[in-house]
Amino acid sequence: MNATINLEKNHFPVLLNELISIISPLYGGTFIDCTLGQGGYSKEILKTKLNKVIALDRDPDVLHIAKKIEIQNKNRFNFFNSKFSEIDKLNIKNNDLKAIIFDLGYSLNQILDFKKGLSFQSTGKLDMRLGLNHFSCDDVISNISEKSLNKIFKIFGEEKNSKLIAKKIIQNRNKKKLKTEDLVKIVADIKKYKFSRTNPSTKIFQALRIYINKEISELINGLIYSFKILPIGGMIVVVTFHSIEDKIVKFFFKNYSDKKNSSRYAPSIEKNNCLKLENNKPIIPSADEIKINPASRSAKLRYAIKTNENDNFDELHEKFNYLIETENLNYTS
Ligand SMILES: C[S@@+](CC[C@H](N)C(=O)[O-])C[C@H]1O[C@@H](n2cnc3c(N)ncnc32)[C@H](O)[C@@H]1O
Q1: Ligand 1: which residue has its CA nearest to atom 10?
Q2: Bridge partners, residue 78, by sequence
Q3: Closest CA to 247 of 332, 158, 177, 171
Q4: Does residue 198 have a pLDDT over 90?
Q5: Whose CA is nearest to atom 15 of ligand 1?
Q6: Which residues make Cβ contacts (< 8 Å) with residue 71, sequence separation at least 6?
Q7: CA angle, corner 35, sides to 308 and 58, nearest 5?
Q8: Lowest mean pLDDT among 91-95, 163-167, 208-212, 327-331
């Protein structure tokens, strides 16, 4: 199987109705879809003829999808093969900008493209690159120290068996070049899972994917630079799929929002309040959506409106510095 498989008909964009009902009062402007994927969000937004969409995706394999949307929506759709952490470099500051949308992670197309090595069923060379990367999973597994590998599994995978799995990987890589199927087997042998809904390698794959694609700094910089190009009154919407992503998004929205102090007696602290939160709790998929698309079950949608300019996001960097440090571990020493 490969990425050219046409899955568009079976594609279920996560929380699509909820997203549209949140952004529709803003209709009649430009929207940035930071994660085009199969174009589910962009196509729905473009159904309103007054709207324009600027879309980004780091994966060059979505170019054929972008081309198709562009042809069907002349002068209303523009695509950049770019990482959203570099959104500020695309020169798209625009007063007509209504919302910037992130649907994090990867798409079914990417999982089914076995050469990307994102699926537990992939075989062959370890890869896991989503696009525009500097190194692959093979580079990491072939060179990294046991200590760093353990840390990546522990911090990014929250994996209880991180130490043993890292040790076994290093022992095995000294005997032969490890492929995706070898990694899956090493983890399965250690975790000896029997009847679990999730594959035993889930957390290990998540950890490696975060490290290889630098997903933490992508998200933190994506949020900050989106904020910077957004006019006041514009909205940032983020759909996350795992707890580490959600922790970052939740902190960003809550820490910089104009929420009131929980106690009316507490001294009011001068903060860089620059966002307005409409909902404290995330929006999650309905039971019906999960039934049709089980992969949506861990999705959480959060959104906020920009109310002021702000140049200081130090607290966001400080809070998640332990993640950035793990992401910056050197795999060649
Ligand atoms: C879950 S899919 C998006 C699905 C899309 N909303 C749809 O309805 O088809 C996530 C997409 O984000 C892209 N992506 C992930 N990280 C990115 C980043 N840092 N910058 C740009 N695109 C990224 C992936 O390549 C993937 O195509």
Answers
A1: 106
A2: 54
A3: 158
A4: no
A5: 105
A6: none
A7: 115
A8: 91-95
Radius of gyration of the chain (CA): 21
Measured in Å, residue 101 CA sits from the centre of ligand 1 at: 10
59 CA from centroid of ligand 1 (Å): 8
Mean pLDDT over the full length of the chain: 92
Sheet order of strands, 300-306 included: 77-80, 52-56, 30-33, 97-103, 235-240, 300-306, 275-277
Band (260; pLDDT cuts 50, 70, 90) = very low
The answer to whether 205 touches 127, Cβ cutoff 8 Å, is no
**Model confidence at 129: pLDDT above 70:** yes
Q: 3-class SS at 180?
A: helix
DSSP 179: B
Which atom of ligand 1 lies closest to the CA of 11? Answer: 9
pTM beyond 0.85, yes or no: yes
The amino acid that residue 36 corresponds to is L
The one-letter code for the residue type at 224 is I
- Using the mean position of ligand 1's atoms as its centre, give its distance from the Cα of residue 60 in Å: 11
- In ligand 1, the atom with minimum distance to the C-alpha of 62 is 27
Determine the 3-state secondary structure of 158 from DSSP.
coil
Using a 6 Å CB cutoff, which residues line ligand 1?
A: 13, 34-35, 37-41, 56-59, 62, 83-85, 103, 105-107, 130-131, 218
CA of 320 to the centre of ligand 1 (A): 22
Token pair belonging to 189: 């042998």
Distances (CA, A) of 283 to 238, 278, 286, 300: 10, 11, 9, 6
- pLDDT digits 0-9 by tens, 24-36: 988 899 999 999 9
Task: Please state the length of the chain.
Answer: 333
| 230 CA distance to ligand 1 middle (Å) | 20
- Locate the ligand 1 atom nearest the alpha carbon of residue 39 and give its number: 9
